[in-house]
Amino acid sequence: MMTLGGYHIKLQRRTNLPGWKAAMISVLAVLFGLALFSLIFLQAGQDPVEIYRQIFKYAFFNSYGLGLTINRFIFLALASFAFIIPMRAGLWNIGMPGQLYLGVLAAFGVAYLFGGKAGNLSAPGVVIIPLMILAAMIAGGLFGAISGFLKGKWNVNEIVVTMMLNFIAFYLVAFMIKDGGPFMNLGGRGESFELPEAARAPMTGDFPITLWFVFILTIVLAVLFARMSLGYQIKAFGKSPMAARYAGVKPFFIAVLVFALGGAIAGLAGYHYFAAVPGVYKIARTYGYFGDLSFYGVICGLISLGNPIATLIIALLFGGLSIGGRYAQGKLHLGFGVDFALMGVLMISLVAFQFFYNYQILITKKEKRLDVAVSD
Questions:
Q1: Which of 33, 99, 122, 267 is least enclosed, having the fewest CB within 10 Å?
Q2: pLDDT tens track of the chain, all 376 residues?
Q3: Number of folded domains in the chain?
């Protein structure tokens, strides 16, 4: 406690935080981040209001920009879910890039086996597409389960393992699509073959079918953590592994399960961006960019406190700002990397404001003491 003027200022830990207060804190963090970044625009002689107007207008109110935003949102939401599940168990899944790489390799492997590289599929899309999605989730799940196995069996640090596996998966993709690799396109460019039209993800309106996966997973995860015994075990293990053991929770099972589930969802994210986004339908030579982009799932998961529904809002915001920021950068001739810088400042602001999720500042007026002299 400290005293300032006539007031006592005290920092007190919160016992609980209502959802509306958490939302209000997040909104204030976003406004603070935008205001802070405005100083950079002012320094460059630009009008922050006009820049933000261009960003939000393109990202959310332009038909083409909205399509890009939704596709980016789908990817970020899936990457966030892949992080949230192990996070609820007190474990850190930093392996989303590797898991999504394995997922997309498995999906393209299915298309390859059915003649997709030559463009002559030997089976209809109604058979190939479900197999591609299933293969992506299985491959990502198995790759994620490696970290869970090592953690559950020998308590190997999951952060180190997942980071190492990311490098292995990155170079595995390079081997498959470059220098004569099996998936290299027939033109000899350092990227994969393009998926034939029959092997591309179906569209529901203007958006790929993977958008429905996001909504379904949101409901499933919300029910899992709020209503199901398995969700309770995961949360109990995350809060106190020792107490959870006494309650009958099996640490090895939980570690393998959460990483397998997280990896499966990350594999689905890989399928989405390389096999479902209109205009892509191949593993581009810049595939590493999307692996790095999946790390935003860590930030989304932390900011949302592991809440699947709140994650959707954060992922949509980041998706829109990344797309709108890139557009404003070109239209208004801003410096290169403004979009990443803006997202970085917002992330720092949101993470910093998490302090107020756990603590509150109490200000009380100092009481005046009245001394009365008593004389005979």
A1: 122
A2: 667 666 777 788 887 777 777 778 888 888 899 999 999 888 878 899 999 999 999 999 999 999 999 999 999 999 999 999 999 999 999 999 999 999 999 999 999 999 999 988 999 999 999 999 999 999 999 999 999 999 999 999 999 999 999 999 999 999 999 988 999 998 888 899 999 999 999 998 889 999 999 999 999 999 999 999 999 999 999 999 888 888 899 999 999 999 999 999 999 999 999 999 999 999 999 999 889 999 999 989 988 889 999 999 999 999 999 999 888 888 877 777 777 788 888 888 887 888 888 888 877 776 655 555 555 4
A3: 1
Please report, for the domain that includes residue 314, its CATH number.
1.10.3470
For residue 95, tell me if it sits in a domain.
Answer: yes
Please give the residue range of the domain that contains residue 238.
54-333
Residue with tokens 């992330």: 347
In a domain, 355, yes or no: no
Domain contains 316: yes
In a domain, 150, yes or no: yes
Instruction: Measure the CA angle with vertex 171, ends 295 and 280; round to 5°.
Output: 65
Amino acid, single-letter form, for residue 360: Q
Determine the Cα–Cα distance for residues 121 and 316; give it in Å rounded to an integer.
36
Give CA–CA dist 281/285, Å, rounded: 13
Cite the DSSP H helix spans in 280-337.
287-293, 296-303, 308-331
